[in-house]
Structures are given as C-alpha cells and as structure tokens.
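Progress note, sequence design subtask.
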C-alpha cells in the first residue's frame, strides 16, 4: 500500500549479494497495489528481495522452487 504515487523498484539478490533481477514500476498509484515478479531464470534456492519506494527500502527472504 502506497501513501502517494511513486516509483517502486524490486531487486533480487542471491545470498552472496549478486544482483539477479531488477524491475521498476513507474508511477505506481497511491493505495493498494499488486506487483508481479517473473522468477524465470532463478534456480531453486533462497534469495533476498529488496523493495524500494522513494527513500524507503525493505528486504525479505524469497524462496523459489523450480521443477
């Protein structure tokens, strides 16, 4: 949920800090949003997902399982 419209950037890092993917959504609208992140090309494992909105950044673990 965004207080104001803003650019939102997602970055996916492996556990060594290597950047695998970066996606920016320009001018996301204020309010509740849903974003899709394509995990194609990522092997099964644990990654760090970083989300940046303006000067604010959050990080969480991202788990992928490939068939």
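Output:
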């Amino acid at each position: 949920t965004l207080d104001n419209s803003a650019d939102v950037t997602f970055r996916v890092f492996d556990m060594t800090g290597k950047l695998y993917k970066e996606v920016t959504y320009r001018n996301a609208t204020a309010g509740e949003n849903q974003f899709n992140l394509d995990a194609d090309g990522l092997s099964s494992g644990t990654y760090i997902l970083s989300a940046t909105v303006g000067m604010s950044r959050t990080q969480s673990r991202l788990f992928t399982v490939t068939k």
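The chain has a mean pLDDT of 91. Work on this subtask will continue into the next period as scheduled.
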